[in-house]
Amino acid sequence: MRILFALLTVWLAVSVGITIVHSMHWPLVHDSPILLYMVYLSEHGMRLYRDIVEVQFPGSLLLYSLERHLLGPSDLAFRLFDLFGLAVAFTSMLVITRRRGLWFASVFGISFFVLEHTGTWAGIINLGQRDFYMTCLLGAGVALLLESFHRQRPLLILFFGLSVALASTIKPTAIVFILLVLPLILALRKRQLPLRSYLGYLLAGFAAGFAVIFAYLLYEKAVGAFLNLEWTMVPVYATTASRSFLEILPAIFEPIHVLPELAIGSLLLVALQPALRDDLDQQTLLLATVLGAASFFLQHKGFTYHRLPFYYFFFLWAAWVLVATARQSTASYRWLALALLLFSSAIYPRLSRPATWDRWNEGALQSDLTALHASDAPGEVQCLDVTSGCLNVLLHMNLTMATGYVNDTVFFLDRNDARVEHLRDDFLAQLKKSNPRIIILTNEQWPTFGARGYDKLQFWPQFTDLLNQNYILSIQRGGDAQHERGYRIYLRRDTPAATPLTLKPASLSR
Fold it and tell me: Can you tell me where the transmembrane regions are (predicted)?
């Protein structure tokens, strides 16, 4: 059995290595530039949650600030930071499985986690995502939770509480993982061990995690502003791009088609083997898998990176069950476990499809802004974008936006909402005060599904009127069959280079 596991380890290691090598050139895209730009603005005189208006939680900003100061703002630096997170995730798996000699379960689990995080068509979007770092923290926390029981060291559970608290300040859905103490409590009572010290250290760690973030907000003088902003923006954001449970249910199985087979086979093996059913490690990992799925469904958007906590714990749990069965059980159970392990490992390379990303729009936009001498005018550019790369360009050019609104997530909603109107009015007031020379509007439709591209302007007539009165559409690129992502550049009417766009729609391309 050792030889077989060693061969499979080499096979998976090579496959994972190829996947990671193909991803080393990946740029930072999608949500990550929003967080990185918020940190950049905070370093250039703007105050978090007071001047910088965004829904991101402070744990994410602290993490991005740490990366920026340790490794720098480059794409490669963040890719290395991401790989460090994978190393932490793998180490946590090894700690969880080492006591039973199930080291191959860690190899199998991390291989498929890397496949979900890096090897699928959406992998590039997962780079730097909050759910990934949340998962890394929770994996380490679960490892220390189990170690606290096996070593009978209550102090170690403090770090589990700390990890759940810190993960919850990245995304609040992580707080459901505090329920992982339930199997531990039952096991302690079964052994008639005292609970008080375990619960005391757990609460101390949980409180310490929130205290760290509270201290960070105090340092930024942003406690009140954070609470007020979250009260305003979170209810609005929660309703955007929202999908029902039945709509997003298929998405949790979408990219990795071995998941149903592994789930059914592993559940069957647990049901048939009392020794596995009664094992604390198996119970904790299974519950963590369920809570990872709960985190996905609670966000009710179905985005690929929301699955990361579920995939991390599912593949570790399934591998734990299969390897334990293959090493210890009767022949019939052993052959089922080995068949699932061999089948999944064999098709791994066929499942890996590292993503690519066309950055033509970022290059074109940077060239346009350079031609317009935007680098000579800090504070005179305003992006209205979410994830189409406008902030990446500003980061590369070291440009500070005219307002603290770093994306237009809630501006182009196709419905009336008092909170949305408040945010719109505040943005327009800041825009009029700063009077930027350049406004960049991308054709990104999310979360406005009621219109295509720039037709979203119809849902915000006040902004459209401001553009028509004070700005001229000077440049429009992309948004066609060749380049889906596009943008418009509006110049203030008193700008010498402000000439109306004369190109016909069919010729508006790169």
Answer: 76-96, 102-125, 155-186, 198-219, 310-327, 333-351
The number of helices, as runs of H, and strands, as runs of E, in the chain is: 22, 4
Cα separation values, 396 from 177, 380, 390, 392, 400, Å: 38, 16, 10, 6, 11
- The structure tokens listed for 207 are 């409180």
Residues 6+ apart with CB under 8 A from 266: 317, 318, 321, 322, 340
Q: Is 389 left (phi over 0), alpha (psi -120 to 50) or beta?
A: left
Domain ranges of the chain: 31-351, 360-507
Interatomic CA distance for residues 149 and 134, integer angstroms: 23
Q: Are 456 and 508 a contacting pair, CB within 8 Å?
A: no
Tens digit of pLDDT at every position of the chain (510 positions): 789 999 999 999 999 999 999 888 888 888 889 999 999 999 988 999 999 998 899 999 999 999 988 888 888 998 999 999 999 999 999 999 998 889 999 999 999 999 989 887 778 888 889 999 999 999 999 999 999 999 999 999 999 999 999 999 999 999 999 999 999 999 999 988 889 999 999 999 999 999 999 999 999 899 999 999 888 888 888 878 788 888 888 888 765 667 888 889 999 999 989 889 999 999 999 999 999 999 999 998 888 899 999 999 999 999 999 999 998 767 788 999 999 999 999 988 888 877 778 888 999 999 999 999 998 777 899 999 988 899 999 999 999 999 999 988 889 988 778 888 999 999 999 999 999 999 999 998 877 667 788 999 999 999 999 999 999 999 999 887 677 889 999 999 988 766 666 444 433 333
Q: Is the peptide bond before 33 cis (omega within 30 degrees of 0)?
A: no
Whole-model pTM over 0.90: yes
SS3 at position 331:
helix
Reduced to 3 states (helix: H, G, I; strand: E, B; else coil), residue 347 is coil
The closest of 67, 316, 61 to 171, measured between CA atoms, is: 61
Q: Transcribe 131-195 into DSSP letters.
A: HHHHHHHHHHHHHHHHHHHHTT-GGGHHHHHHHHHHHHTT-GGGGGGGGGHHHHHHHHHHTT--S
Round to whole Å and give the CA distance between 215 and 210.
Answer: 9
Asked whether the beta carbons of 184 and 149 are under 8 A apart, the reply is yes
Q: Which of 299, 168, 240 is nearest to 419 (CA)?
A: 240
Q: Are strands 438-442 and 471-477 parallel, antiparallel or unpaired?
A: unpaired
Cα angle at 310 between 308 and 313, to 5 degrees? 105
Beta bridge partners, 382, equal 439
In this structure, are residues 447 and 243 in contact, taking their beta carbons and an 8 Å threshold?
Answer: no
Instruction: Find all residues with CB under 8 Å of 91, minimum gap 6, and list them.
Output: 140, 143
Residue type (1 letter), 321:
V
Which whole-number Å values give the CA distances from 119 to 17, 114, 301, 419, in the listed order? Answer: 11, 7, 22, 39
